[in-house]
Automatic annotation (TrEMBL):
Pathway terms, separated by semicolons: Amino-acid biosynthesis; L-proline biosynthesis; L-glutamate 5-semialdehyde from L-glutamate: step 2/2
Presence of the UniProt keyword NADP in the record: yes
Residue stretches making up the Aldehyde dehydrogenase domain: 6-286
Family: Belongs to the gamma-glutamyl phosphate reductase family.
Lineage summary: Bacteria, Pseudomonadati, Pseudomonadota, Alphaproteobacteria, Sphingomonadales
Enzymatic class: oxidoreductase
Species this chain originates from: Novosphingobium beihaiensis
Protein name per the record: Gamma-glutamyl phosphate reductase
NCBIfam families, per the entry: PRK00197.1, proA
Catalytic activity: L-glutamate 5-semialdehyde + phosphate + NADP(+) = L-glutamyl 5-phosphate + NADPH + H(+)
Primary residence: cytoplasm
Length: 433
């Protein structure tokens, strides 16, 4: 595949004496020029480019894993937590999954050009709303190198260029993955500037991205609370983000005991460092197998911190503080409360949820429907682990993040969430009286 590319400035990144603002402006201009090329591509051309990238990722496995090993060793030397190291670490299976996710994104329907709605006015004007790319998207993230691949693939498939700024913990991994993307794009005849990795770890460059109004169209932060809070506080560019993943699972009185044990254990312990991990377990006072649920978690190595009624279930449960109900542990720690029915569970969730993902385990259809209708979170589940809060598990191929706000996109943000729309008006000479 070969396409006609627009000229993109060929200058070294981070030229001597270049300020962070000038660097971001230059990269953004290059990205915007490349995005105009992407906007002209067909569905097949974008899919072919992503399949080429997936092939390069597989071929580059030794180089990517070697780069990742350097990052992991540096992280261990710095004393990163087990959860942080788990987010950082790649292995052949995870890298294969990364390449597979890129191919899955290639196979998804292209949202660009989709007609959302059509109408005709009494005066004969024909109106339509059509999906288009957002433009140039800035992604600011921390220690998960898979974000480099997920974000780049989703942006390319939806016709957007992307400027990536990863964390220093994954510096070598991100560079190796970005190099694979550049090679794949160029082999497909596309400008490498469609996917750019910030060449400096200078924190001032983040500030320059956040204030690049007119150059960067949207910022997506992925990382810890301090990163997201800074982005939301300082950005002059629109932000799509979630701040915390304080996810609840409520075991209703009518829950099947075996299901409750399995869902609770998986929701917390499958991977404790992801934003969809359960951080608070609510158990109905009328549920008959409460002790076995908490024992299963404790036996699996999870530290439990509970209210007085929860602590009466097992002497190994530690007392919870007020702060525990509002803490995203991202570790093998869980807060537990016993509640008096569905109303009390809904009240607790309303007070402490971060509106990310909340779940109920119940055999009562009426309770399930009420929970679905009344919990105000981006993702609400019945009889399923909150660990399914993931774009890939939702059939979206991958995700650029989980949005917990109310505007533009909510929940796993994938291809559709990376588009906006424009109005097309077709007339036949009408003039307005």
């Amino acid at each position: 595949m070969t396409v006609q590319t627009a000229p993109v400035a060929d200058r070294p990144a981070g030229a001597a004496g270049e300020s962070p603002e000038d660097l971001v402006a230059r990269l953004a201009r290059d990205g915007r020029a490349a995005q105009r090329v992407l906007a002209r591509l067909t569905d097949a051309q974008k899919a072919e480019a992503l399949r080429a990238v997936a092939g390069v990722l597989r071929a580059a496995e030794p180089a990517i894993l070697e780069a990742n090993a350097r990052d992991v060793a540096a992280g261990e030397a710095k004393g990163l937590t087990g959860a942080m190291l788990d987010r950082l670490r790649l292995d052949p299976a995870r890298l294969a999954g990364m390449a597979g996710a890129v191919e899955q994104v290639a196979s998804l329907p292209d949202p660009v050009g989709e007609v959302i709605a059509e109408s005709e006015r009494p005066n004969g004007l024909k109106l339509s709303r059509v999906r288009i790319p957002i433009g140039l998207i800035g992604i600011i993230y921390e220690s998960r190198p898979n974000v480099t691949a997920d974000a780049a693939a989703l942006c390319l498939r939806s016709g957007n260029a992307v400027l990536l700024r990863g964390g220093s913990e994954a510096l070598h991994s991100n560079r190796a993955i970005a190099a694979a993307f550049a090679e794949g794009l160029e082999s497909a005849g596309l400008p490498a500037a469609a996917i750019q990795l910030m060449p400096t770890q200078d924190r001032a460059a983040v500030g320059a991205m956040l204030t690049a109004v007119g150059l960067i169209d949207m910022i997506v932060p992925r990382g810890g609370k301090s990163l997201v809070a800074r982005v939301q506080a300082d950005a002059r560019v629109p932000v799509l983000a979630h701040l915390d993943g304080i996810c609840h699972t409520y075991i209703h009185a009518a829950a099947d005991p075996e299901m409750a044990r399995g869902v609770a254990l998986n929701a917390k312990m499958r991977r404790t460092g992801i934003c969809g991990a359960m951080e608070t377990l609510l158990i109905d006072t009328q549920f008959p197998e409460s002790a076995s649920v908490v024992a299963g978690l404790l036996d699996a190595g999870c530290e439990l911190r509970g209210d007085s009624r929860a602590r009466s279930l097992d002497p190994r449960i530690l007392p919870a503080s007020d702060a525990d109900w509002d803490t995203e542990y991202l570790d093998s720690v869980l807060s537990v409360a016993v509640v008096d029915g569905l109303d009390a569970a809904l009240e607790h969730i309303a007070a402490h949820s971060s509106h990310h993902t909340d779940a109920i385990v119940t055999g009562d259809p009426a309770a399930a429907e009420r929970f679905l209708n009344e919990v105000d979170s981006a993702i609400v589940m019945v009889n399923a682990s909150s660990q399914f809060a993931d774009g890939g598990e939702f059939g979206l191929g991958a995700e650029i993040g989980i949005a917990t706000g109310r505007l533009h996109a909510r929940g796993p943000v994938a291809l559709e969430g990376l588009t906006t729309y424009k109005w097309l008006v077709r007339g036949s000479g009408q003039t307005r009286p």
